Amino acid sequence: MGRSRWVVSKNLQILLWIAIVLSVFMFSNTLYLLINRLADNLDLSFFTSSRTEIPILLQTMILSHTGVGILLVILMLVFGLMHLPPVWKMYRHKSGLTGIAFMIVGLVLGITGLFILTSAASRDHNWAWWLHVICALLAPTGYILHRMSSRGNKPANNAFKRFSMAVILLLIFLVIGHISTKSNLVLTKEAKAAREQGMHKGPGARERNVEDYADGEYFPIGFVPPGSPFFPSAATTSSGGYLPSRIITRGELGDSEEIKEDIDQFGFVKNTAIGASTCARCHQDIVAQWESSAHRFASFNNPFYEATITEMRNNSNEPNKWVEKHVAHFKDFGPDGIGRAKSKWCSGCHDPSLMLAGKMNRIIDRNTPEAQAGLTCLACHSIDKIHNQTGNGNYNIADEQEDPYLFAKSKDGSLGAFLHDAAIKAKPEAHMEQMMQPFFAKSEYCMTCHKVSLSESVNNYRWLRGQDEYDNWHDSGVSLNAARTFYLPPVKKECQDCHMPPEKAPLGDLAAKNGMVRSHRFIAANTALPFIRNDTATLQKIVEFLQNEKLGVDIFAVKSTSRQEPLMGLKHTGLLLKSGEEVTVDVVVRNKGVGHTFPGGTNDSNEGWLEFTVKDDTGNTLLISGFIDSEGHLDKNAHTFKSVLVDKNSNPIHQRNAQDIHVTVYANVIGPGTADIAHYTFTIPKEFENKKLTMEARLMFRKFDQKYLEFAYKANPQGFKQFKEIPKLPITEIANDKIEFLVSGNTTALSNSKQQNNKLPATDWIRYNDYGIGLLLEGDSRGAIKAFEKVAELQTTSLDGPLNMAKTALSEGNIEEAYRQLRKCEELKKGDPQVAWVWARVRQEDGLYKDAIAAYTYVLKYFPEDRAARRQLGRTYYLDQQYEASINMYKSVLDIDPEDREAYYHLALNYRATGNNADAALMDQAFNYYKIDESASEAAQKYRMENPGANLMAQDIRIHHLEF
């Protein structure tokens, strides 16, 4: 009996043969891709390239897999539609079901492939990848079953064997080709030149400069040799030298006409997102968020910063020993060479597109895209290394390797750009390895620019600490690194938890997980930048952020001349105050949710303050502290939260002129979980007897004080060209409290009838606790004890009352009372590590060093990075003459903060005790390098004498005397 007639026309047979040939390729291609995936998972070095490389053959196979796969699905659909009519009348149940199944599997295969192509092969889409692989296995099975069960011409006996052999031979060819071409490291031309000239020293290499530090001389951890192309910035590049700005901007400089229109209208580029167009093809939401961020407006597109950096570049040319020693390094910078060199200290974090390309050495054209770029996507995401914990832009930029994917330089909207993105989506590992480092999720990443110090090369003076959000966070309860904290949160928080919280990604960002991405708005407290560009949406988000349980204000206590004991826990009704008598009102401001000090950042120009008012029942202001005058300046006697700095001649730092900073007059900030108290004293006139008045305290914040605003506006008219006069920056009310009171002529008027008639709610314990914390920190231990006793009364099962009383007794030197309170703590909760911290301190003060060592060791079991516990344990080892143990402990402190002067001081003591005078001398040098210059206090004292408001804020206890 002959073979059955094949119910397929000649045209369809040609179509089928084309499909079979393509299927051979697809089978080999699929197996090749699966082998690559397996090799990656098993880390088979003989088969895989480096994690930032992706071989051209592999990319070609990925792209052809997609193209051929789409073609095969189309052929299958065409074949099915043409094949169905002639076989419908001959329908057989078995062959019909297998044919339909084959078609469905093929469609799912095509759909999942397109989904992976458009949505990326990420972990979130693992289901799509596995479904695609399963369908890839089911499709040939379905086809074979269909052919074998059909009535028509069945395949020849050796057809499947020939098909298999073809697949295997092609696969062998692909594997051999892959192994022989697996390395695809595409170096930038700058990296090639560095290697050819023998200048390449590895990622971020920096050599000790023997001309500056001889043997036996202390070598600062964050030292930047003047020979560095970026001196005095601590930034480096992998190639060792300057890099082209395209590394940071991807060469995406925007439309020149649009940029010119922006600059003509606003004074800076507002609408063109420089260096982000390629990123926006896949990360639409992240780019949209970044476009409104302070990071984007960090360079000459920030008129405030531009005013300061220009002033530094033009007016900081005073010679110093660094210049005299390295004249050759500065002479090429032009007449303003010293100032231009110093400006690179700022530029590592503000102007990477300019500085890393060597453009800070010359006059800067502010209208160029590079000057208007700010911190682009790659300014952050090309960082591959953090050198140490000293900050100052202490990072390395990976500039050696070009984008490893095909068609990387294709323009938006082109076929090349589509293929480039398709390769990334199908094989994103190399892209992720280049763009995402493990430390990106850690606070240490933020530290590179949010921890600052000044060196002699910048200020012609000495090492000084600048803003330092990192250490303020790290050495606090927020990071779970401080056993001594008053409030210990349940979980550790990194910088990113507050400033990069998850945000919805409605635009389809491919980095989204469960529809969310890490916000790249970097919301913090800078209300000035969105204000000057009229970005009301961002301004509102910042206001909401600041008002979201970050700080609290509480008008908590009042005392009078006739009653010195304060009346605490004031309620909002029922307060009686006597006319004609002087009263003092205590206002508590607590840091509830800021993970570092409030304020943070540039506190010489930031301005936080308390506005305290007394008003009558019609709303007329009778008394005020913390007002803004007609010219926009803050009341000089206000209770402020900021720092006042002066130069060597006692002139205040009003221009963000960091190079002139000499000494701090005062810095009133509130650490995480602590409180500050403002005391307001006034006498209520007789005329207000029997009247109801209202006192209100409002915590206010303005990003820049008026002095700095005036400087920036006058120094940089180009940047503020949209404003005809000095703009009025927004003032944000962060928190407030209000209390009504009745003025009485009664001699015993001071009372709180609401409190007297009702038992205090247990929740009021935290108000008393905050008040006690504020009093303890300002040195009023007697008042703190009174408050903490109330805490213990309201929270009978909590450690807070007795533990804080133990801390207060310790501060007074009352060891016996501290022991008594600690025993109460042990009765409430035995073995608590925060209690152990106080036990250790008390035992140490009592000379019981072995017990103190055991307690500190216990604390470090639970708080291993508690630098204060490490310091005290090192100190106790020293007092117990265990010098080697003390040395090791203080070295561990330096592992956390290599600029800890106390550690250097005690290392010198230990080395000297062991007879190691050479190392002791070295540690003395280190201590002298980082220590506070006591003689500088004369400049601060002079300023205080001339400025009563600053003098008041420099006191431990600030009492503001007000008049009606």
What does it look like?
The structure is a single chain. This protein is α+β, with helices and mostly antiparallel strands and 964 residues long. A hairpin with a 2-residue loop joins β8 (551-560) and β9 (563-567). It is built from 38 helices and 21 strands. Helices cover 46% and strands 12% of the residues. The longest helix has 33 residues, at 10-42. It folds into 4 domains: 10-180; 197-400, no CATH class; 536-758 and 957-961, Coagulation Factor XIII, subunit A, domain 1 (Coagulation Factor XIII, Chain A, domain 1), CATH 2.70.50.30; 831-931, Tetratricopeptide repeat domain (Serine Threonine Protein Phosphatase 5, Tetratricopeptide repeat). It is globular. The strands form 6 sheets. Strands 10, 12, 13, 14, 18, 19 and 20 form a 7-stranded mixed β-sheet that branches. Strands 9-8-11-17-21 form a 5-stranded mixed β-sheet. Strands 1-3-2 form a 3-stranded mixed β-sheet.
Helical segment count: 38
Output the structural class.
alpha+beta
- By oligomeric state, this entry counts as single chain
User: What is the arithmetic mean of pLDDT?
Assistant: 89
The coarse overall form would be globular
Q: Regions with pLDDT < 50 over 5+ consecutive residues? A: none
Q: How much strand content do the residues show?
A: 5-15%
**Which CATH architecture of the largest domain is right?**
Distorted Sandwich
The biggest beta sheet reads:
7 strands, mixed
